[in-house]
Amino acid sequence: MDVTEGVNSYGTLDEFKEYLKGRYGSEVVNTVPSRAALLITAARELDLLICGSKPATATQAMLFPVAGGCGCIPRAVKVAQFEIAINLATIGGVPGSIASESSGQEVTEIKAGSVGLKFGSSSTKSVSRAKGNPLLTDNVKALLSPYGLCDTGGGTTIVKVYRG
User: Fold this and answer.
1) Which of 8, 10, 24, 141 has the maximum number of C-beta atoms within 10 A of its C-beta?
2) 65 is in which domain, residue-wise?
3) What is the dihedral of CA 89, 143, 66, 59, to 10 degrees?
4) Among 154, 156, 134, residue whose Cα is nearest residue 145
5) Tell me, what DSSP letter sits at residue 151?
6) Angle at 64 between CA 59 and CA 68, to 5 degrees
7) Helices (H) and strands (E) in the chain — how many of each?
8) Are 106 and 97 a contacting pair, CB within 8 Å?
9) Does residue 50 lie within any of the structural domains?
């Protein structure tokens, strides 16, 4: 699986590797069999978190670059994607990650609508947006807040409104 900036990821694998060098706690990513899959999943999750922005063009594959922006992928968005990837690895959002192995189970299902993870064939452990999103840490919120975060379970959401 190839990571392609602007197509299925905001940051490149090289940028992700460089970011991990200076990030305490990032060693959890070393337990994931595919950093590419982790990064692509994190980009998809990030797109689900933004409600106050729209893509610059109707044909682009991902949300960023956004209309009225710099025409580029902002550094804050890349860092947010990297942080979400680390959070995914930590909570076991990718098969073979530390959380799924430590529980003796693997992720058997990842949903897109009302996002949730299912571990093993009979596990009820899941990540639910209804109770807040564990991927949306304070750091990720701060990085993405200029783009209009969706309400992820309790709280006020501030979004930009585009008219016209």
Assistant:
1) 10
2) 13-104+134-147
3) 0
4) 156
5) P
6) 90
7) 5, 2
8) no
9) yes
Total tally of structural domains belonging to the chain: 1
In a domain, 27, yes or no: yes
pLDDT digits (tens, 9 = 90+) for 68-95: 888 899 999 999 999 999 988 888 765 4
Instruction: Write out pLDDT tens, residues 124-150.
Output: 333 334 346 778 888 999 999 998 888
User: Where does residue 53 fall: left (phi above 0), alpha (psi -120 to 50 degrees), or beta otherwise?
Assistant: beta
Q: Which residue has the tokens 């670059």?
A: 65
Q: Do 144 and 77 form a contact (C-beta atoms < 8 A)? A: yes
**48 assigned to some structural domain:** yes
Write down the pTM of the prediction: 0.70
